[in-house]
Input
Amino acid sequence: MLEAANNKELPPIPGKRYFTIGEVSNLCAVKPHVLRYWEQEFPQLTPLKRRGNRRYYQHQDVLMIRQIRSLLYEEGFTIGGARQRLIGDESRSDQSQSKQIVKEVRQGLEEILKIARR
Output
């Protein structure tokens, strides 16, 4: 997803399960109102919402926010361009996962075929 080299100035992500919006704001060097705005613009960013509409972000959400931050602030993408880039990255990832699954199923079937021929 996002390489550590792109975010040298950001603090390491602690090994917690959930993070509040304030914690994520500090971890990603982005103000809370920007995080709320990005939730509307990027469908991949969906923190859990609990009582009182409080947001709780997970580790993968923090990584996604760092990637969005990098695309917008460091690489100069627009919101629309960053959204398209993330969608393209997801579809490539989905394709590679699908190819891996097909490869594993094929290997399994070939092993079954070898056993059946004996």
